[in-house]
Amino acid sequence: MCGYTRHKPGCTATYNILNDIFMVIQRTKNRENEMENTFLTGRTALITGSTSGIGLGIAKALAKAGANIVLNGLGDLAAIESLRSEMADLYDVDVIYDPANMLNPLEISTMIAAAQQKFGVVDILVNNAGIQHVSAIDEFPDDKWQAIININLVSNFHTIKAALPGMKKQNWGRIINLASAHGLVASPYKSAYVAAKHGVLGLTKTVALEIAQQQITCNAICPGYVRTPLVESQIEDQMKVHNMSRDDVINDIMLIAQPSKRFVEVEELGQVAVFLCSSAASSINGISLPVEGGWTAK
């Protein structure tokens, strides 16, 4: 018996055969991994509020998985075009931009219709657009309250209403609503935001029940504090206001409710969204998934 040694002349042929088999298996595994990494090829994802921050991180993760992308959000048009072109080249997918205002139901429905005209259907809808205002409730400006409710909650209703018929027709779809840890717990001075995010979770559950017998899911992600350009600027502001070090602002102000004492990274949320679009998540429907370092475990 020659075993696997190469030193016996009679074993050379056996070794070569085993080596060839190993190489074939390895190449097959590499192809499977490559296919798995781009399992959303041919799908189209529309992400609101995706020209920066969390939305952009999710858009990049879905593009990396092979999905065509519809960007939406505010910003300098030249910078957005540069971003769009860069993503299309980097991930080898189609990327378009729609400037629809999330305060305008007609612009929302027109955006969905335009995406459907170009790609056939919006397979994946990520509702991420949101704004914030902090104030005591008896001093809360009426217009700020209404804008927060309309963008953070009502726009989700309009995008889902417009995109869902196409998903139903093909019997496949993924709806991901970006809620917040504040959809699960409250904080003072954030009445409109907390109300809107609690509403998002109620909407998520209702939609999930309505489409439960089809190959469509509707779930919510509930992030804690996420490291974004906006949060970075808030850290700098807090350092000046309180005359505190960066670390003290992060640990004693920003992350005081987040037991992990670290920011959630946008890349983490992107991977969560990709997972919720996978076949492994086909039976996950109607959940509110905390990604907040243990905030709501207390």
Structure description:
This protein has 298 residues and is of the alpha/beta class. The protein has a seven-stranded parallel sheet with strand order 3-2-1-4-5-6-9, with helices on both faces. It has a two-stranded parallel sheet with strand order 7-8. The termini are far apart.
Which strand order do you get reading across the main beta sheet? 3-2-1-4-5-6-9
Structural class: alpha/beta
Counting DSSP H or I runs of 4 or more residues, the number of helices is: 9
**CATH top level?**
Alpha Beta
Stated plainly, the CATH topology is called Rossmann fold
Instruction: Estimate the mean pLDDT confidence.
Output: 91
Helices and strands in order, then pairings?
Blueprint: H1 12-37, E1 44-47, H2 53-64, E2 68-72, H3 77-91, E3 95-98, H4 105-119, E4 124-127, H5 142-170, E5 173-178, H6 191-210, E6 216-223, E7 226-227, H7 229-242, H8 246-254, E8 264-265, H9 266-276, E9 288-291
Parallel strand pairs: 1-2, 1-4, 2-3, 4-5, 5-6, 6-9, 7-8
Helix pairs in contact: 2-9, 4-5, 5-6, 7-8
Family: Belongs to the short-chain dehydrogenases/reductases (SDR) family.
GO molecular function, one term: 3-hydroxybutyrate dehydrogenase activity
Pfam families: adh_short
What are the key terms here?
298 residues, alpha/beta, Rossmann fold, 7-stranded parallel sheet, two-stranded parallel sheet, globular, disordered N terminus, oxidoreductase
Concise summary:
The chain is built from 9 helices and 9 strands.
